[in-house]
Design brief:
This protein is of the alpha+beta class. It folds into 2 domains: about 290 residues, 3-Layer(aba) Sandwich (Aminopeptidase); about 110 residues, 2-Layer Sandwich (Alpha-Beta Plaits), CATH 3.30.70.360. Helix content is about 35%, strand content about 25%. The protein has 11 helices and 16 strands. Strands 1, 2, 3, 4, 5, 6, 14, 15 and 16 form a 9-stranded mixed β-sheet that branches. Strands 7, 9, 10, 12 and 13 form a 5-stranded antiparallel β-sheet that branches. A two-stranded antiparallel sheet has the order 8-11. α1 crosses α11 and α7 packs antiparallel against α8. The longest helix has 22 residues. The chain is globular. The protein binds (2S)-amino(hydroxy)ethanoic acid and manganese (II) ion (2 copies).
Length: about 425
């Protein structure tokens, strides 16, 4: 039985979350750390120091993933990996991704202090990118480790300032062959601890979420092209107005999503208007679409029909449409055997938990396609996430870490 009730564990978690959030803190107390940017680099270097302090052997791979290794006595054994992503959305919260990394460092440090060397090697990873916040591509870290992502996927990718992906990667020192090979074939399983980013656990007073499935998701950029013209002298029937077309399409999308299925979600989160001037009818609008559901067939049917309907609406407005699908991830089932280790521990200790689906994408969605993977949640206050108001109580952080410690102890000792 692990007596991991040392008060230090509680303080370590909350104070380390605060410490890490200082790398990229925004003026309204959010966090912005974008792949390979300066704050990202400083955060990875700071985590490298923290891993060393925790008694782990830190090392980078050539993509910029940072590992902390606790060597097992059975040298040829495969590696048990835990961790999450270091990048954030713009002005995001301090727990999304960061919590899984901090939890892994604390857990491995605790295990080696309390139980000495494990039989199986344990590693915690700070994955370089998951969100797709800087470049139009997600899961660059876990995708390179598993082989889902390849160098050719980023050849043409640029950020919104026109900086090429490859240049940003090389400038940060990666992609130059200076570090360990990224692709790994020595992993036995992946366990990710993450904040729920929803409010189910808090509403139902559950301490832990054991995720059974992660929803599938697709992301698009839709560009509508009309004609810019004078706002005062162009009669309404003569206009080819990209903004009014886009407004009708977005209304149509959200109405259709509401009618499709209570668990179906569709989001337009980003929009650019050209020339974006009050007295000029817009020539072009580009907006993002993010759709999610646990059934691939439903995502396929929805996207096929909604884009057909989009084309008809554009014809009525005499505007043109271009649709670019830049992200498509299948729904992924988590490993029942791994999840059962968590539920057995939670039941034994009478800790209220819920088996649930994840509406958010995670690196577990990638690892889960290649190796046994378990995703565990702790509550998010009011379900707020991707926001400076993201918050999880220290006691909830600790419960998640205690569970992680026990699961890793079960697997590695
Ligand atoms: O958008 C998501 O689902 C995740 O937070 N990247
Ligand atoms: Mn996120
Ligand atoms: Mn995340």
């Amino acid at each position: 039985m692990i007596k991991a009730d040392s008060p230090a564990l509680l303080n370590q978690a909350e104070e380390m979350i605060e410490w890490l959030s200082s790398y990229g803190r925004t003026e309204n107390n959010g966090v912005t750390r974008l792949l390979y940017d300066e704050k990202w680099q400083k955060a990875q270097q700071a985590l490298k120091g923290k891993m060393k302090e925790a008694g782990l052997a830190p090392y980078f791979d050539d993509t910029g993933n940072l590992y902390g290794r606790l060597e097992g006595s059975e040298k040829e054994s495969s590696v048990i990996l835990t961790g999450s992503h270091i990048d954030t959305v713009m002005d995001g919260g301090k727990y999304d991704g960061a919590y899984g990394i901090i939890a892994g460092i604390i857990a491995l440090n605790f295990l080696s202090k309390q139980y000495g060397q494990p039989k199986k090697t344990l590693e915690v990873v700070s994955l370089c990118e998951e969100e797709g916040s800087r470049f139009p591509l997600t899961y660059w870290g876990s995708g390179n480790i598993t082989g889902l992502r390849k160098k050719e996927d980023i050849e043409k990718a640029k950020d919104t300032n026109g900086i090429a992906f490859n240049d940003a990667m090389n400038k940060a020192g990666f992609g130059l062959g200076q570090y360990a090979e990224t692709k790994r074939n020595d992993l036995s399983c992946f366990i990710e601890l993450h904040v729920e980013q929803g409010e189910v656990l808090e509403r139902e007073n559950k301490a832990v979420g054991v995720v059974s499935h992660i929803v599938g998701q697709r992301r698009y950029n839709v560009t509508i092209t009309g004609e810019s013209n004078h706002a005062g002298t162009t009669p309404m029937p003569y206009r080819k107005d990209a903004v009014s077309t886009a407004a009708e399409l977005i209304h149509h999308l959200t109405q259709k999503a509401k009618k499709t299925d209570p668990a179906f979600v569709a989001t337009v989160g980003r929009m650019e208007v050209t020339p974006n001037i009050p007295n000029v009818i817009a020539r072009e609008v580009t907006f993002s679409i993010d759709i999610r559901h646990s059934e691939e067939a439903l995502l396929e049917a929805f996207s096929t029909s909604v884009f057909d309907e989009f084309k008809q609406i554009c014809e009525q407005h005499q505007t043109k449409i271009h649709i670019e699908n830049w992200m498509k991830e299948q729904p992924v089932k988590m490993c029942e055997k791994l999840s059962a280790i968590s539920t057995a521990i939670l039941e034994k200790e009478n800790i209220p938990y819920k088996v649930m689906t994840s509406g958010a994408g995670h690196d577990s969605q990638v690892f889960g396609q290649y190796l046994p993977t378990s995703l565990l949640f702790v509550p998010s206050h009011k379900g707020i996430s991707h926001s400076p108001f993201e918050h999880t109580e220290a006691a909830d952080l600790e419960k998640g870490i205690l569970l992680l410690i026990k699961v890793l102890h079960n697997l590695a000792y």
